[in-house]
Write a structure and sequence with these properties.
By secondary structure, this protein is of the alpha/beta class. 43% of the residues lie in helices and 14% in strands. Helix 10 links the parallel strand 6 and strand 7. The chain is globular, with a radius of gyration of 18 Å.
Length: 292
């Protein structure tokens, strides 16, 4: 699928999109790709119409010539919705990590008439602002090194270093992205997702997220929105989700708030069955509202 600047985005689909009342749109996170959503594709097979796409520079999508920015994330989502969701259909947006930020970026730019285009949103393991500054990956530094902590945080996300896939990288992937107790298959899968991402894309998008502030988009959400997070998430710690839920609750659009004890950042496959149950509840409530 082409974007206005000519970059090609890889899109994967499931089911009969033209016949569906609602189309589930899955938006993955930083350094991942559409394969991240394998448990959801299996879960929805034969039951739901689903669209997933790779962010620029991730998976099979081209980086393009436009400088990566948080605003561009929302613009690419708008292109996917315009090109892939048929006229008269509505989407249920499910975003993980940078995918959730993408949804809020989109809402900040394209929220007019949201209810006509979007029936519900699920924000998973994500944040509305200060995501790099508040991550818990960097251990407490000695006092004399603390002034350098912002530089360490920024270097972690923005340096375009190649990542090998080996025993050491798997241990790092476990520490960074998963809960303390994780299945080896999940560790290996996370390690492969991280290693497969282009170093230049990883660094460019990490740099873009350093100035993340999509609170304006969060405030403009006007459809039922579920918030989901793991209590052991180091990348987007649980306080981010609680703060987003408070905003949504104040605005009368919080569908539900769910914390998965012991889960890390990769909730959609760390807790696949329970996460899919949340999606089923959201989709069921959407159908009930339409039919009532």
């Amino acid at each position: 699928m082409g974007t206005p600047d000519g970059a090609l985005l890889h899109v994967a689909t499931l089911g009969d999109i033209d016949a569906a009342d609602e189309v589930v749109v899955l938006i993955h996170g930083w350094t991942c790709n559409t394969g991240f959503w394998n448990p959801q594709f299996h879960h929805f097979a034969g039951n739901r119409a689903v669209i997933a796409y790779d962010h620029r520079g991730h998976g099979l999508s081209e980086m393009g010539s436009v400088r990566p920015s948080v605003e561009l994330l929302g613009q690419d989502l708008q292109t996917v919705l315009e090109e892939m969701v048929p006229e008269g259909k509505r989407a249920v947006l499910v975003g993980h990590s940078m995918g959730g930020m993408t949804i809020m970026s989109w809402a900040a730019q394209f929220s007019s008439g949201m209810e006509e285009k979007i029936s519900a949103i699920v924000l998973t393991s994500t944040a509305a602002k200060d995501v790099v500054q508040r991550q818990q990956l960097v251990p407490d530094l000695p006092r004399f090194l603390r002034p350098a902590e912002p530089l360490v945080e920024r270097a972690f996300v923005s340096l375009p270093l190649p990542l090998a896939s080996n025993d050491l990288s798997a241990r790092i992937a476990h520490y960074v992205a998963l809960g303390p107790v994780a299945r080896q298959a999940h560790v290996d899968f996370t390690d492969k997702q991280l290693a497969a991402c282009s170093p230049s894309a990883r660094g460019a998008w990490g740099t873009a997220m350093y100035t993340l502030d999509v609170t304006a988009g969060l405030e403009r959400i006007s459809v039922p929105t579920a918030v989901v997070v793991g209590t052991k998430d180091r990348l987007t710690k649980v306080e981010h989700s609680r703060e987003m839920a408070d905003v949504l609750r104040s605005n009368g659009v919080l569908h539900s708030y769910t914390e998965f004890p012991g889960a890390g950042h990769m909730v959609p496959f760390e807790r696949a069955d329970a996460f899919n149950a949340v999606l089923d509840t959201v989709l069921g409530d959407v159908s009930e509202a339409v039919n009532s």
